[in-house]
Amino acid sequence: MSTLLELHDVSMVFTSKKSLFSKGRNIGAVVDVNLQLNPGEILAVVGESGCGKTTLGKIITGLYRPTSGEIKFEGKNIWKMDGRSFKEYRRSVQMVHQDSFAALNPARTIFQSLKDVLIRHKLAKNSKEARNQLYELLKLVELTPPEQFLDKYPHQLSGGQRQRLLLARAISVKPKLIVADEPVSMVDVSLRISLLNLMTNMNKQLGIAFVYITHDLATARYIASNGRIAVMYLGKIVETGKLNEVLRNPSHPYLQALLSAVPIPDPDLARTIKALPLKSLDMPDPANPPTGCRFNPRCPYAESICMNKEPQLREINGSMVACHLVEKVPKWEMMQESAYVK
Ligand SMILES: Nc1ncnc2c1ncn2[C@@H]1O[C@H](COP(=O)(O)OP(=O)(O)OP(=O)(O)O)[C@@H](O)[C@H]1O
C-alpha cells in the first residue's frame, strides 16, 4: 500500500514582529517532524496547549507552508505541485476546526454555505443537484430530517449539530484525509461519544484517513484505538507508535506524566496512583526552548546529557521514543504496581 501522507523534517518557525517593547522572536511551533500516514489510517496527535498541534494540522492541509522540510501527498511534494494538482490535494485533505461557529458564515443558511462548496469543486452542477446531495449528506451525519436543517442559520443549531455539519461539509468534497482539530472539545461531554463514533464510521465506511488533534488522551484513545498516536512536546514528537501499545506501555517521561494526570473515576484507585512528580509545571517559552532535550527542565529523571544533547526518536519495544534515558526510566507497569501495593 502506498503512503498517503509523508512529512520529512518539517519545521515551522514563526517570526513575531519587532515592537516598541519587544524584539522580534522566532517561535519554532513545529520542529523537525517526521510522519507517515497510510490510506484509511487514524493518527491521534496529542499534546498540551501550545505544543504545535494546530500548526501541524495546518501544515498537513496546506494552509501553512512550512519554513523547512518536505510534505508529500501520494508521493508528490505538495509545494512543487502545479496549480491543478495542488487544488486537487487541497480538496483531498479537509480540516475540521474546533470552533464550529467561527467556521460557518453566520449570514448564510446551511444550504447556501454547503452548496457553494459543491459547486466550487464542480461536484454539483446547480442548486437542485446540490440540494439532493446535501440531503443525503445530512442523513449520513445523522442530521435528520435534513429539510429541517438546510434552511437554518448556524446560530439556530447546537454546537454538536454544527460540528456534524462541518463533518458533512468536509466529506461533501470526497476527501481522502480529514484533519480534525479538537473537534469535540467545544461540544457537550454527553455528545462527544456520538461525534467520535460518527468519525469512526466515516473512517470505516468511506475509508477516509483521520489526523485527530487533541489535548485529551481519553478521546484519542477512543477514536484511534486501532490507529497510531504521536505525542508532541514543544513542537517535537517525543513518542509515536501504535496507540494501544504506546498507551499501555508509555516510555517517555512526558507521556507518563500526562497519563498519570488523567483523572481516575474510582476514588480508591485514584488515591493509590501517584502523579509523576514533575520538576516544574510550567511549559518553557517556545521562543527560547531549553537546550538538549526540551523536556529536561520538567523531567524528574534528567541528567547532564539531557541538558546538552537533543535526543532523536529511536525504536524502543516497537515504538519510537526521543529520550536519552529511556532504558533507565521506570517502566510504566512497575510504577502502576508500586502505586497499587501502597
Ligand atoms: N501565526 C502565528 N504567529 C506566531 N506564533 C504562532 C502562530 N501560530 C502559532 N504560534 C505559536 O506557535 C506555538 C504553537 O501553537 P499551536 O496553536 O500550533 O499550538 P497548539 O498545540 O495547537 O495549541 P492549542 O491547543 O492551544 O491551540 C505557540 O507558541 C503559538 O503561540
UniProtKB/TrEMBL annotation:
Lineage: Bacteria, Bacillati, Bacillota, Clostridia, Thermoanaerobacterales
GO MF terms, alphabetically ordered: ATP binding; ATP hydrolysis activity
Entry keyword Cell membrane: no
GO BP term, example: peptide transport
Domain of life: Bacteria
Location of the ABC transporter domain: 5-259
InterPro entries: AAA+_ATPase (IPR003593), ABC_transp_ATP-bind (IPR050319), ABC_transporter-like_ATP-bd (IPR003439), ABC_transporter-like_CS (IPR017871), Oligopep_ABC_C (IPR013563), P-loop_NTPase (IPR027417)
Entry-linked PANTHER family: D,D-DIPEPTIDE TRANSPORT ATP-BINDING PROTEIN DDPF-RELATED, TRANSPORT ATP-BINDING PROTEIN
Entry-linked Pfam families: ABC_tran, oligo_HPY
Source species: Caldanaerobius fijiensis DSM 17918
Flavoprotein among keywords: no
Protein's name in the database: Peptide/nickel transport system ATP-binding protein
UniProt entry keywords in alphabetical sequence: ATP-binding, Nucleotide-binding, Transport
Homology family: Belongs to the ABC transporter superfamily.
